Each structure stands twice: as C-alpha cells, then as structure tokens.
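Exercise 4. Each item below gives a protein and its sequence. For each, produce the structure-token representation.

Item: Alpha/beta hydrolase (Nocardiopsis sinuspersici).
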Amino acid sequence: MSHHEPETHTLKVPGAKLYYEVRGSGPVLLLIPGGPQDAGVYDGIAERLADHYTTVSYDPRGNSRSPLDGEPEEQRVDLHGDDAALLISEVGIPAYVFGNSAGAHVGLDLVTRHPTLVRELVAHEPPCLTMLDDPSEMMAGGKDVYDTYLRGGAGAAMGKFLELNGLDGGSEPEGGSTPADNPWHEDPETYERVSGNFDYFFSHGLMPLSLYEPDVEALRTSGVPVTVGLGEADAGKAIYDMGLALALRLDTDPVAFPGDHLGFGPHPEAFADTLHRVLDGG
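Answer:
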C-alpha cells in the first residue's frame, strides 16, 4: 500500500462551508460520516482505498472544520444530501458512495433525489428505526438519550447513546489497544475534534437524523445498486435489525463487514477490503 497524503479543500454550500480531503486516483468514492463524526474517522480506510479510488472524505455541515454561516438549526437529511450532491458535482460524477450510520441515511437520500450522481451506494448500518416491526423501544431510547443530554450534558448522553447502539463494549483494533472512552478508535486529535461536535449532534441531530424514513420505492426504481452493510459483531442488536429490515424491503442481500457499528476504525484493512470487494462487483 502506497502512502497518500490528503489534499485538503473547502467548498461553499448554501448556509455553510464544507471541509473535505482527497486522496489517490481512479473513480470517485465519497465517504459520508455519521452523526458527530468527521473526515478523520475514515483516515484508515481512505488511505487503503486510495490505490483504487479517488477517496473523498468530509466534515458534514456544522461538524469540526465545516462551519455554519448562522446559528445551528435542526439537522435535515435532505440538506446533508444536497451537500453531498454538490460535493460530488465538484469532485467528479458519478461517484461510488459509502455512508455509515446517519451518513448511510444521507447516502440513501442522495440516491433517492440525485440518482444520476451515484454509481453505487453502500449503506453501512443505517439506523432505520422506523422500519423495525416495533420501533417504540428504540424511539423511547433515543428520547431518553436526548432528555439525558438536556439534563446532564453531552458526556452523559454519549454513554447512553453508545449503550443504546451496542457500542459500549467496543472491539479490539488491529494491532493495538485504544482507550475505552474512545469508541471510534480514532487518533487523539480526531477524537478531540469529534467530541467537540457532541453538543451539536445531541441538540440538533440525534432525533431528526434517526427518524428519517428511506423511500424504498424510489430506491428500488433509481437504477442505482444499493447494498446494506452490517457489522458482524452487531448480530442480534437493534442497529443490525434496522439495516436488515431495509435490505429485506429492497430485496437485496446484506453484506457482512468486520467489527461493529464503527468497524472501519479498529479494522481499517479488513473493512476497506470488504468495501472494495462490494464496489468491485464481488
């Protein structure tokens, strides 16, 4: 694997300025972070995939190095989808797209409303709680996280959020350990940046991003291949069942990815290999 130093850029979009990083060469692969995450969480897989793709990772509006022009408002999946569309239009059409968690919801919205921009989508563990047979428990859990944030702040809320999504156990990274309070297995600089987004996520993102309901019919008729990725370590958890429910509605087979909901952090090599295999038609 050759080393690819990222080129850093910014793109002005309505109401914000997006920070993004470009590595490698080949067809464009846009990596969409979820929730409070930013481009840094994908460093490991972006580096490994840059031998095959022009990898583009970015900080979603309001996170880290992508400042909003005005005051924070409720986050909207369609607005994030428009940002992703503008970014693809800037770096190269059509693009392969990978999204994790709420970033998978953004990818699904992108395919629904901007299908000509997307070559193929891998939606990794989309939190489609509206697709569960009985979403009431997860909805109540999400509201409990939000109420905990209002009462006790971002730290207390993050503990509940990780527990709700089965992330409190964590998984051992390739080649070393990571502090238990850093579930993303990021380097300290990235973790410090991402943790600075927790307030914005809990106050303006958690509820609207998780209540997004994919338009299954539009996805099925879009002409864009959509693959649902599920973390091997998440079998039996609600987050796994949500993604599985979407795959069943789309009548597609889900693909097992290494690790848990954030498996790209501790398992970058195996995760990148799996993603490349999916996009390469394997």
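Check: Residues 125 and 243 are 5 Å apart (CA to CA).
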